Amino acid sequence: MKKYLPTIIVGLLAVLPLIGLSSYAMHILILVIMWSVIGMAWNLLSGYCGQVSFGHAAFFGTGAYTAGILYGKLGLSGWWGLPASIIIVTCFALVIGYICLRLRGPFFALATLSMGVILRIVAENMVDFTGGDLGIMIRERTWVEKIWYYYIILALACGTFIVVKLVIESKLGYYFVAIREDQDAAESLGINTTLYKTIALCLSAVLTGFAGAFYMNYMGYIDPKVVFALHDISIVTIMVVMVGGVATYWGPVVGAIIMVLLAELIRSIPLLGTAHHTFFGILLIVIIIFLPNGIVGDFAKLKRIAGFARRRS
Amino acid sequence: MSFLEVKKVSLFFGGLAAIKDISFSLAKGEILGLIGPNGAGKTTLFNVVNGFYKPSRGDVLFKDQSIAGLKPHRICRSGLARTFQVVKPLQRMSVHDNVIASAFLRARDKKQAEEIARDVLEFTGLFEDRDVISKGLPLGKRKRLEIARALATQPELLLLDESFAGLNPSELDVSMEIIRQIKDKGITIMIIEHHMRVIMALSDRIVVLNYGEKIAEGAPLEIRNNAQVVEAYLGEAQSA
User: Fold this and answer.
1) Is B92–A174 a contact, with Cβ atoms under 8 angstroms apart?
2) How many separate domains does chain B show?
């Protein structure tokens, strides 16, 4: 059963739009799947390899701007942004990695955090190239119907899931976890920690960049404050994985469902809606105290608590 | 032509000399003991040989190639593995996965890495515990896991940093037997140890450090009777 779980879920998701969901429901589904992609990508670098990034907006935004600039400056379809972002985002990741990966733990986290912010400011100021604060708008969306966007992001998510699974079960995966657990021990066991951390960063960045390029095409509009956002992209990325379960295959997916639905729910509450970050903060505190391994990682514990509560009632 | 040669190595931290002008060499197949009081610079010397520190002066030759200043992973690839005094198991990985991770250094694929890991675990007597998460192992077995992990990189020279500290007498015998078998495989060993019974029984030769300097070198029996060594360990004999 467990072996076929991914196939069953993908099968269900593939037929889901055929039952005629509303445009809003489709939008939420697309967001959930997009956030799963970003979560899985972050998980690779930060969950498995232990290099916690607070700046994944840098890669998301780079992917989005790659697509946007191809459309805006070169007149190509924004979808070329997907293949192009492999090269562009890898270059960015190599530069960022060269600077940041020599730092460890919280210092790496702070350095990546600043990278996201720096790229936002650069994008705001290079007006000729990026359009500055006005952002980039795609005047004609590829499709009016959401269903095609849905299938594209679903395919991206499946691809990401497969890539993560293959990587984690190979030599790379063992090396990533070894680096997370003890960098000095890993180094003395013959693991080139700098090389493998860079590989983890590049893989993670490219997958995040895909999500960014998709976002450009799907939303049709980006500006620096949206795609290089610290709290709405970088921090939400971390929350998706923390809530779902760090270093688990399904954690980012579960986290994405919860975070997207929660964000929609809170935003619809009158008056409190603008304070949704406060709610995220409270949620994060609760998760860290009671479910430090996330919902997937602490599922057994969660079931025990639920079972206990049922018996008492 | 020696197997490992430490040539006039010094390491300074600021103005402090952690080790000063140390020279010695190792022949292939021998066991060299490294002893000295706490803070004498034994582990620091390991860190220099293993590549964590670049010596401020002097050179380290391994198989006639200079390895001073190379990265630890390069040195490990050339056939030199070590264990840590403060054990560093990959905590949230099972014992088996710990050893697989280091076996990948020489393995072509995952299947071969698993085979190497299985052999090493059987050799070190950890096969029964292979599925235990290494955080949960008792100290004796964690020390042995350190050795297993180093062996999985298929080294020619093994540096053991206090692999016997904190073991009970029966664990001590098991570990000593493992060390002898490692030697029989043709692996050269350098060993730091405070247990005199262990070091005297295992070593072919002993180097003694005190305050970062080499104060004696010789066969176990010579070292036992060396006045300077006795003084370093027990303090100067009081004049009446």
Assistant:
1) no
2) 1
Q: Looking at chain A, list the stretches that DSSP marks H as alpha helix, in order from N- to C-terminal side.
A: 5-15, 23-42, 57-72, 81-100, 105-125, 127-130, 147-168, 171-181, 183-188, 193-219, 224-227, 236-244, 251-267, 276-290, 294-297, 299-312
pLDDT at B238: 55
CA A168 – CA A162 distance, rounded (Å): 10
In a domain, B87, yes or no: yes
- CB-CB neighbors (< 8 A) of A182 in chain B: 88-91
In angstroms, the Cα distances linking A256 to A60, A135, A251, A282, B125 are: 16, 26, 8, 17, 44
Domain residue limits, chain A: 23-312
pLDDT tens digits, one per residue of B26-48: 999 999 999 988 888 999 999 99
Whether the full predicted model's pTM is greater than 0.80, yes or no, is: yes
Which residues of chain B does A177 touch, with a Cβ-Cβ cutoff of 8 Å?
90, 92-93, 97, 101
Which residue range forms the structural domain that includes residue B67?
4-234
Q: Residue B73's closest chain A neighbor by CA? A: A190
Could you give the dihedral angle defined by the CA atoms of residues B41, B43, B44 and B49, in that order, rounded to the nearest 10 degrees? Answer: 120
**In this predicted structure, what is the pLDDT of residue B236?**
61
CA distance A280 to A268: 15
Q: In terms of CATH architecture, what is A23-312?
A: Orthogonal Bundle (1.10)
For the question of an ipTM over 0.90, the answer is: no
Probe site for chain B from A189, A197, A293 (most B CB atoms < 10 A):
A189
CA distance A259 to chain B (A): 27
* Option in B72, B77, B93 nearest A181 (CB): B93
Task: Say if residues B147 and B171 touch (Cβ distance below 8 Å).
Answer: no
Contact yes or no for A187 and B73 at CB 8 A: yes
Contact B73 A170 (CB under 8 A): no
d(CA A93, CA A88): 9
Q: Residue A169: closest CA among chain B residues belongs to which residue?
A: B110
Nearest to B88 among A171, A175, A184 (CB): A184
Confidence label for B124 from pLDDT (cuts 50, 70 and 90): very high
* Residue B239 belongs to a domain: no
CATH number (domain holding residue B120): 3.40.50.300
- Looking at beta carbons, which residues of chain A come within 8 Å of B101? 174-175, 177-178, 186, 189, 191
Q: Please tell me the predicted confidence (pLDDT) of residue B147.
A: 93
Task: Give residue A56's pLDDT band: very low, low, confident or very high (50, 70, 90).
Answer: very high
Note whether A192 contacts B102, CB cutoff 8 Å. Answer: no
The pLDDT score that the predictor gives to residue A270 is: 81
Summarised one tens digit per residue, pLDDT across range B173-217 is 888 999 999 999 999 999 998 888 889 999 999 999 999 999 999
